């Protein structure tokens, strides 16, 4: 069974490297959001920077379309950030990256030095690597401003050893494992030190290494590889503990424990024609939960995400509170419209209605906004601002409710609005 698993994984890994050339995983973007507004520089923003390998990038087998947007643990973590206020994500997960590559990359970021793709790591399969190299100064700036830095790294260090487990004697396997552990310790410690030199205070969360293959595929070798994975967890714990201090936390996301016994559903190791060690969507959600619970003590799922049908209206979360109102959101001309009164009540804004002009005047945060039914402009402090689709009146019971698009709400009132199609949820933060 193990040899069969090895053949499948080897073939799929080669395919993954070939297909990765076609992947369009954008750096520095919040891929989970379909709609997001520009951040107001005067507002506090929780900034997340994700570093590491293809798990950080959110890779899954079959991602060959350049328009494919990954939805990995980092994108889910951004959504969790929106529950707590304005949040941004920049994702620099590099396909095929090892701990040595991360050490080289973070070293160049720390030093502000010019580095080549080969200088990071020889033969990296990521088609965006030249872009990552050019972005080194930008990444240094983003790391400096980050509140949370997440890292997944190490799987590419040991994948070959794990594939060879059947051919190696116990002595040879243990010897090579100890060598890999020593390299892991050295490289991860150096990477953390590089990051700390750039940002002395951000919380850093490092994931340990899960063992991807289920017992049914490994047989007697399952226990052996699980023991090896446990040693990597111990190494991650010890390295992080050596760097952890008050006001500058370095924590370990114990992902391996969550995957143990559930590898078949959490990874692509067994799949029709596309076996792969990367997480499934359920696996990425599992990883995100571990990170989120370390950072915020919880992982939240909106009400609509638990519903079985797409006909359920989308969810609205304002300042971390999910709205429960009879004035349901409306989808019109591809735009999501919300009842203005509900949003104003949620954020505590003042508003008044003028029947003569069919307009609402809203005052909030030093802004005066006039929204007129049917107009493709709104007035912000007396100035016309164009919007894509106008506000309209919608009959709800015996009342006419003013509905306006999310984009107009963000533009007019200066809110941060993000929409996640995966969660069918709009996050609104003043």
UniProtKB/TrEMBL annotation:
Ranges where the Copper amine oxidase-like N-terminal domain occurs: 317-428
Record has Signal as a keyword: yes
Keywords associated with the record: Signal
Keyword Protein biosynthesis: no
Transmembrane feature ranges: none
Domain of life: Bacteria
Listed InterPro entries: Cu_amine_oxidase-like_N, Ester_Hydrolysis_Enzymes, GDSL, Mao_N_sf, SGNH_hydro_sf
Pfam families per record: Cu_amine_oxidN1, Lipase_GDSL
Signal peptide: 1-32
Protein name, entry field: Copper amine oxidase-like N-terminal domain-containing protein
